[in-house]
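DATA SHEET
Item: assembly model
Revision: 1
Owner: S.N.
Input lines:
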Amino acid sequence: MSDASTQSGIYGIAAEYADDASLLEAARQARAEGYTAMEAYSPIPVHGLYEVMGGKRTILPLITLTGGILGLLAGYWLQIWVSAIEYPINVGGRPYITWGAFFPIGFACTILGAGVSTFVAMFAMNNFPEPYHPIFNTPNFEEATKDRYFLCIEATDPKFDRNAVREFLSGTQAAAVSEVDL
Amino acid sequence: MATDSSNYQEEVLGQADVMLGPGQTFESIDRDITDIVLTNKPPKAWWIGLGIAGALMGVLMLSVVMLLFFGVGIWGINSPVGWGIAIVNMVWWIGIGHAGTLISAILFLFRQDWRTSINRFAEAMTLFAVSAAGLFPVLHLGRPWMVYWFFPYPNTLGMYPQFRSPLMWDVFAISAYATISALFWYIGMVPDLATMRDRAKLKIQKIIYGIFAVGWRGSATHWHRYEVAYLLFAGLATPLVVSVHSIVALDFAASVIPGWHTTIFPPYFVAGAVFSGFAMVLTLTIPLRKIYHLEHFITLRHIDNMSKIMLANGLIVFYGYLNEVFFGWYSAHEFEMYMIWNRMTGPYAWSFWALIFCNGVVPQLLWMRRIRRNTIAIFCIAIVINIGMWLERFVIVVTSLHRDFLPSSWGMYTPTGWDWALYAGSAGFFFFAMFLFLRWVPMISIFEVKEVVHKMEHKH
């Protein structure tokens, strides 16, 4: 944990909301106030929330593309190496490298490379598996997978000040505001 | 919910074209879906089903052991019919699997919200059907313990597989398909597993679902990456599913046997796969929604939509049959013409005409709205189509092989008891896995249903 959070001794301050509109509005206000280290939690994806909080578009599609291209190259390389270099079979003088007949396996390898890299990258970016996280200490947080929405301003924020944050979050349409232990 | 389900259905769900029953909140959705797994005792029908499927699993074990001990001679296969019902079953199971991917990936790309209630178990069906399919080509090898020879690894024999063979394409396509389907299924389930973790009442449940939920917190960042990843997976699975059954079709089409050697096979196999897959989804859905009282999640609109897709694919498949007959005649090729004539009037004519009845005639009932909304009628039609699609593969595999070019090498094929035992056993495996899935995993995608409810609320 960084210095700021160890100083305050908490992970952050979380507010609970009854619906997605209040959460979205609160996130927008927090952004306007100048807070940067925050995270919102919701039972369903809330569209626009990530962008409001200043999140950058994920590079996941690029990883998928790279994985797909590597899969394609690996699939073709495997077939070319086996059929032309390691174990060439001369069938009536036909060519060893037959890219057309290699396509089905090349394609399967493309999809496999793209899919597996997407899966691994998403897990790695989200730091999964991560069974423990301080946000789970938030009172009532198990409702975040049911029907409650949370916004947590984290102690690592340069502008973080317990009282100011608490006051600010109480000013939004929060149903409850509470400190989140580390 | 829905104490008197038949009345509920007629009065509330039968009238409007509802995608979900009215009056649902996020809380009630959570409760209705998670309770099935977390708190409720399994219904009696579950125990009965599990018992039957378990017994058939025993049959599977026995027939595999017999096969390994005595060899493929215990089956009815011989020259000229070397591909018996083992291959029929393999193609049948793979085809069934394809509907799951169609529902989860293709309907997702088309933004068909109604898929949310059925995609989870349709995908589970895909996984188990593909696993069941995988049994057959391996057991058909003759020496199944040599199955690793399929894989190109450096070995002391100094030999490598022939990558220009469609059978090798199959190995790669089906293993890629099984892998991608499993990952897609799991990634789509992570948010729901977190819901299960948080709803769990027992500590052991919390721990187990907690492990599989990998620490999902539903943060905006998680959701953002999740949605991008899910969309990418849908985009990857869509061409893959089309390629898999095309490659299965090429196992046949790349040979020179009359009845196999035809360019129409790949598209017609794909349509047939979707056709049989939807029939299987309906076969499973209709009893399921009744037994678990899920009529408010899986409404008549779902049944109606699936029946329409089934009808459309049935027509494509039937067009394929007509094409085969037409080109058999139009080719003016002695062997092709004889193949069609033999199918229609030869010793296996019964299977051809039963096929036309099951896949060509019966699905025409689906034109009627009244039939599409009658669950019993749809259940029966779906069963008939399942049988029809099995017969289709039987006609293709057996009648094409049993009389090819040289009359002196013609022969007949009759499946033996062990052929049927393995088939029944594979069904046992499939249903056993399905029953365990129903018991341990939320069978309906919870958060996606919530999204639909949320969307509906904000429309009004």
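QC remark: Residues 3-53+136-181 of chain A form one domain.
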